[in-house]
Design a protein that fits this description.
By secondary structure, this protein is α/β, with parallel strands linked by helices. The chain contains 10 helices and 7 strands. About 3% of the residues have low confidence.
Length: 269
């Protein structure tokens, strides 16, 4: 299933002006369950992360998490990197017109090569590691780039049905993934192998989240991959399903799950 072309099409619609761009960010914040979990973790870390500091948005995409961090931590400077030049150019253009222009900078970078010694208090990596084959090299770079006491926060699919894969013969719902998901012990072991001593992981996308993901993401994207005509139907679809997804997202972050299709991983240097 091709996910990036759909994201690009949606981005083009909401890129017409700054108001639509911010509205797009807010819509993603509500729709994407991973954002709910990331915001919960950031809220818990607020005291640790406050003050003048540098943050890295590692795999910045449309820039929604850089925008969130920029609003949440007004004393912080945020570096956002991604391998996609088009998205970096787009984000720099948008942020240059905002009040965050002097605090949020986007650059093209390969995470397997990018490192800045002892620089960052926070490295945020949301749905990125499942796209990178050389993950241990990236984890090494993250560790090298964090200040002592700095925090690495990762959201990624798990091997418990991440990418909507449940059996060995099934393929990932997202073609761009190089792995279907991490085993919770595997990712913890890899992080410890590069130097992290404090590593905590928990499942996201438990039973409520899995239903929400299908309603809010899988079914609409599947339809849009069939035909762009479904863009016309999409607003009416979400009119019905959006309130249900919001309730399910809320339930997913309220409870700790024994298993889930996503992982939230926190590691401290």
């Amino acid at each position: 299933m091709q996910y990036d072309p759909i994201k690009k099409s949606l981005g083009n619609v909401f890129n017409k002006n700054a108001f639509l761009r911010v509205s797009f960010y807010k819509l993603l914040d509500l729709l994407l369950l991973r954002t709910w979990h990331i915001k919960k973790e950031i809220k818990n870390l607020k005291k640790t992360l406050s003050g003048n500091s540098y943050f890295l948005d590692a795999g910045s995409g449309y820039g929604q998490y850089s925008h969130f961090l920029g609003r949440k931590f007004r004393d912080a400077k945020i570096y956002a990197v991604d391998v996609k030049e088009e998205q970096i150019k787009d984000c720099n253009l948008f942020f240059s017109k905002t009040s965050m222009a002097d605090r949020v900078v986007f650059e093209v970078a390969d995470l397997t090569l990018y490192s800045e010694k002892d620089k960052y208090k926070l490295i945020l990596s949301v749905d990125v590691m499942e796209h990178i084959e050389e993950d241990v090299k990236v984890f090494q770079n993250f560790y090298f780039s964090l200040k002592k006491g700095g925090v690495l926060l990762i959201s990624t699919p798990s091997d418990q049905g991440g990418s909507d894969v449940h059996d060995d013969h099934e393929e990932s719902f997202i073609d761009e993934h190089v792995r279907d998901g991490y085993n919770i012990n595997e990712i913890e072991d890899k992080l410890r192998s590069v130097g992290f001593t404090e590593v905590e992981s928990r499942y996201s996308y438990g039973s409520p989240g899995k239903i929400s993901w299908r309603l809010s993401m899988k079914y609409p994207i599947s339809l849009l991959n069939i035909s762009k005509v479904f863009f016309i139907i999409l607003p009416f679809y979400y009119l019905i399903t959006f309130p249900i997804s919001l309730i399910l997202n809320y339930l997913d972050i309220k409870f700790r799950h024994k298993t889930g299709t996503g992982l939230i991983v926190k590691a401290i240097k």
